[in-house]
Amino acid sequence: MTAAIIAPSRLRHRARLGVRIGLAALAVSAFGAFGTPAQARGPEGIADVAEKVIDAVVNISTSQTVEAKGGGSNTMPQLPPGSPFEEFFDDFFKNRRGPGGPGGGKGGDNGPPRKTNSLGSGFIIDTSGVVVTNNHVIADADEINVILNDGTKIKAELVGVDKKTDLAVLKFKPTKPLVAVKFGDSDKLRLGDWVVAIGNPFSLGGTVTAGIVSAKNRDISSGPYDSYIQTDAAINRGNSGGPLFNLDGDVIGVNTLIISPSGGSIGIGFAVPSKTVMGVVDQLRQFGELRRGWLGVRIQSVTDEIAESLNIKPPRGALVAGVDDKGPAKPAGIEPGDVVVKFDGKDVKDPKDLSRVVADTAVGKEVDVIIIRKGQEETKKVTLGRLQDPDKVQAAVKTDEPAPEKPVTQKALGLDLAVLNKDLRTRYKIKDSVKGVVVTNVDANSDAAEKRLSAGDVIVEVAQEVVSSGADIQKRVDQLKKDGKKSVLLLVSNADGELRFVALSVQ
């Protein structure tokens, strides 16, 4: 069974009492099948932490009006994929379908709009009624309610969300004094430290689980600023948005994702660290949105081959593949081919480091950016702009139409190369602003094919020198071979003018 990354929330509540009894009976076997191995007894302080903070942890109840499909109220509840519950509910609802069954109508007919309910978790950070949770817990909700530990249900309003870190801030008017929790320092966490998770797993109500910090700074490719705390504390569906505490009772993370083949905890859960959460929450409370710093560059990793080509030892930093003409980096003198190794006094080990530190830096702040250019360090002063987030994804332009054969001007590095002319621009839909040598074919067994070069790519520079013909490229490659270089660094553009660096073997 394939494991999946799941946001552990939004277990639907639509089953009747009889179904719930069946669910309870099946839950015993389900937890037996998918539960984590028994852990050693934890520190006695866990009970003290739970007693101290439990009243600050809330359930988040949302409702949404959706278009009914396939028989209105007969719709089956959402359940963990592959769980034993699925077969039970499938049989239950299958027996009720049909023209004469509850809900009526034919199997494929759409019924009237209906409301669906879901539950997640959250926690109070201010006694005035400010709550932190996950964005995916409240996304698309028509109505949001906060349910306190004593069962009090109060309508809440949305203050702001940040989709990139999956965080949201809510506000409600308290009817009595509240308990609030404070943030701790997630940077001080060590591997093996005990942590406590409190939330609403499987919509059972407030539940406490404990475990240890399994890893820090996890990048699971769920967003541009991934830096999760990994824990084996049991986190299940409904825990999304709930707090992860240290043994001082401070929030050091927000439980957000799990990896699981079943939808239940297998001991691999992820929390957004408090260092990230605090910055996001402060901005959402102040502005209702995120105002992130913007450098105005496109970056990529410095591979061993690229590092060898640029004479950078050891490989490190973020390679600038492109500079926005209207961005802050342009007037500061940052150019494609520069490698950023330090930003505002902070070391940059890889592109993710640079993305995070730039995003966390105040808009309008002047910072020192240390780059490596042609083997030498230089310092550039940059005044950060503001990152605009239109939430649009632009796809590269490609054509599936077979192109007529054209004479090949030159062969080099496993590539067929030609001078970029009007016909080739039309064939590959290459913008007029793109200059260089166009690739018309790639040897399937070459290093170029492995590095995903393809017909229609345009080679702009070779070893940081502009080229305009296949002969120029071959000349540069021959010289690098004589100099004993193992690889050559190409600056490659796609049809839209987006640049990237590619290192190819010259051996």
From TrEMBL:
What this protein catalyses is:
Acts on substrates that are at least partially unfolded. The cleavage site P1 residue is normally between a pair of hydrophobic residues, such as Val-|-Val
Which UniProt key words apply to this protein? Hydrolase, Periplasm, Protease, Repeat, Serine protease, Signal, Stress response
Tell me which domain of life the UniProt entry assigns to the organism this sequence originates from: Bacteria
Which Enzyme Commission numbers does its entry carry?
A: 3.4.21.107
Catalytic residues of the enzyme: H136 (charge relay system), D166 (charge relay system), S240 (charge relay system)
Region described as Disordered: 96-119
- UniProt-listed InterPro entries: PDZ, PDZ_sf, Pept_S1C_Do, Peptidase_S1_PA, Peptidase_S1C
Q: Which SMART domains match?
A: PDZ
Naming one, the record's GO cellular component terms include: periplasmic space
Q: Using the record's annotation, list all stretches that form the PDZ domain.
A: 284-375, 396-495
Q: Which residues bind substrate?
A: H136, D166, G238, N239, S240
State the family named in the UniProt similarity comment for this chain. Belongs to the peptidase S1C family.
**Name listed for the protein in its UniProt record:** Probable periplasmic serine endoprotease DegP-like
Question: Which organism is this entry from?
Answer: Bradyrhizobium diazoefficiens (strain JCM 10833 / BCRC 13528 / IAM 13628 / NBRC 14792 / USDA 110)
